[in-house]
Amino acid sequence: MTTGTEETTLTIDELAARAGMTVRTVRFYGTKGLLPPPVLGPRRVGHYGREHLARLALIEELQQQGMTLAAIERYVQQLPPDLDAHDLAIHRAVVASWAPDAVETVTRPELERRAGRALGDDDVERLAAMGVVKPDDGGDGYRVDLGLLRLGVGLLDVPLSQEAILAARKVLIGHSRSAAHELAQLFRGEVSQRATQEVKSLSAHMQPLVVQALLTTFQRSLREELRDWLGGVSEEGRSA
Questions:
Q1: What CA–CA distance (Å, rounded) separates 156 from 34?
Q2: Quick check: 212 pLDDT over 80?
Q3: pTM of the shown model
């Protein structure tokens, strides 16, 4: 497991290796303003943090969606300047949700490169249990759901049991499918009289907006639940 300290003191070579890019590419993104400058340490050696790594992951996701470099520059320029690694990961998740399902067969080294870290056998087994990867029947590779890979890798370091993570996955899938069905019914009533091409255009436009709205409302609801829960725990501690 990687510690937070290690993650926030990366050299440019380490950053490039974690991101699966060349140092030249990282430097290029820096000159284009896509990547904030590093923090200068002793002997003016640049140090990069989790925010830089998360921003590179976001840039990579935008490229995979077919965006040009100019479009990526415009997208990044519109982001608030104080986003941390967590906020950038959320943006990346929203961008990834626009894409159709993407499942590829990859080798173990390629799986680790896509994951951005080394993976032990236990890690791969947990990812398989979460439905993120599946051993390829035809060889020694893995079928990997690229849309879920980053999320699954992030969950590897969460201090929850495998049973709790799988139960949470079941809850989220159930509620998201229910919400998607109800929203589809609502939109179907609004567009039933429109031409097919117009409906497709509306769907493509609405999808990222709906995903962002669901994400925002869920974040706020979860924050309120955690606040109430932690507040209750504090009250119990004071009364004990």
A1: 29
A2: no
A3: 0.48
